[in-house]
Task: structure prediction
Amino acid sequence: MTAPGNRWTQRWERQPREARDTLFQLAVIAWTAGPHFMHLPPWCTGLTLLLLGWRARIALTHGALPRRAWVVALLALATGLTLWSERTLLGKDAGVTLLVLLLALKTLEQRTRRDTLVVFFLGFFLTLTHCLYSQSMFTALSMLVSTWGLLTAQVLSSMPVGLPSLRRAGGTAARLAMLGVPLMVLLFVLFPRFGPLWGLPQDGLGRTGLSGALRMGGVAELATDEAIAFRVRFEGSEPAQQALYFRGPVLTRFDGVEWRQSPPRLATRGDELGLVRRLGAPVRYEMMLEPIRLPLLPLLEFTPELPTWPGGSADALLPTLSEELVWRTDRLVTDRQRLSAQAWPTPPPAPRQASVTQLRSPGGRSGIGPRMARSIDDALRQIPADRNPRAVAWARSLRASPELAQADPGQLAEALLAHVRTTGFGYTLTPGTYGIDAVDEFWLDRRVGFCEHYAASFVVLMRAMGVPARIVTGYQGAEPPDADGWRIVRQSHAHAWAEYWEPRTGWVRVDPTAAVAPERIDLGAALRLRGGFVANTLVNMNPALAERLRRAWELLDSRWAQWVTNYSRSRQFDLLSSLGVEAPSMQDMAIALISALSALALAGASWAWWDRHRQDPWARLHAHVCRALQALDVPAHTHQGPATLAAAVHRRHGETGREIVSALCELDALRYGPANRHLPQREWKRRFDAATRPLRRVQAASSAAQRR
Result:
């Protein structure tokens, strides 16, 4: 009984070569387009798979390709659908959509060799477009497989005779690719890093993580996202987990449902910020920021000085510090950024104030200067009059109580936190859906929520008591350092906290989450939703192994980002410096590149000259046979095949040359037989030389006798 795998292999081998090569090419195209399907509209994915399936059916049934009118009609349909879904035919998403559809449509009119070459070139270009969405190591591996598959299909199209196996074509493609590796490495290392020569519209940005607006439940959605927001590495001693607050959008405007940012205002640098850098040692750190698609840098609180970029790419973002102590950029951060900075993070609070931290310098000076004090106005006390009436009334009654009638903002904040600690509040990712008066429902009824529920309710209640307050969103905590010292901060570390205004001190940070879930702040550990059995099989079987595998992969991806995608101009200059070039410049880089290319070209020319003398082993073997037969007085010419030479040997030497005739007939069968087997040249050459040796001796003896 034939095994299923053998039956499939036999069925595959029985396919005509044209059908087999076409099916392989379609499989490569599907693999190449596959990663784009998560970015493309569903109709594009369905239409692409339908077109590829149609072409595969034609190959299996040996049918005719559709008429050109059908292809034109499908092209018009694809263009119209692209315009309908993307609202344009320009830009990244629209361009990739059309490219995928054009590649699938081109397979339906693949009649000539020119059409086949167009398919290959479109495939290579589609492979390159993966870098528009991701430059991770996983994407690079997928692109490598796509490139090898397209090269294999191209090699098959260049073998018009016989039935070459996919293994043979794949091996040839791999060797051709390896020949280009030195050139690619050389260009990667030494080709000057310029800014982008063209720009693309920032369309199709997809998931953004944190945003400039907040509704109750928004941060909880991010808490289930394991995507990496950024990596951070500290020099020297690391700050405590409680101090790892990475500042993002500050939200001040509240319409009763949603919190939004106020228009940004620039801050005056220096002492007016109340960050006296000379009175404390800074924490120096390095950050690899993923594309967060926000016009800001989520730096560690507090980073008062302009960050630096390796390679001098800071001009591309133009970050400025706002009065809200947020580093804003002139455009969205849509590329991976690697930067260095130094911060004076606020030390952990005293045990009595487990969630209140004053934003002031180590020297005790005011946390906010005169200009920033003038910006504190009634806007930060406003709350919608028709929203959350019960919670507002509760806060105002608390403020009017004899115990707090003369209390300062700090005492009011502590009263709210004491209420959280003593009233049975809970911390969860799944608090359910809240109504239009969410603060009323959370504070007085359910008492269950996530960090944004606590931060938003705290700010509303502080404003109801007449204290200016605002919400700050960002990230809190980080994972333990990996082998390279990088600490990962994920989207699941997204966090929301509050700040209130203290006239004598400035802004004071309050994290109400610490009052109900101190482990979230002390350990920097975000909550996790429990996954399903199928999705978390490995985690359920061996959680430690799953965690090690995940951290190992992320370490590799981090090194890929550090040494490949973030390879900058400064790295190139460092390489030249290590080679002995003093004060390297772009001119030195160009000279090094030209010199290396010249050396590589010389090496390639030398290899080609050497290879020319060893190529076509059959031609060399045939020339050896002709020389040997001519020495035996057999008329042998290079245009004659083994069978013709065997007949000439038989006519000249008869039965004496029987062994030579047998060897030549075997050579003819090996070379031109239907099996087209591999020619064992060395073994056959030894047999042929042994067969000619007796005749050469007879020939030598006859010549010696004639001389005597």
Notes: The mean pLDDT is 76. Residues 4-190 form one domain.
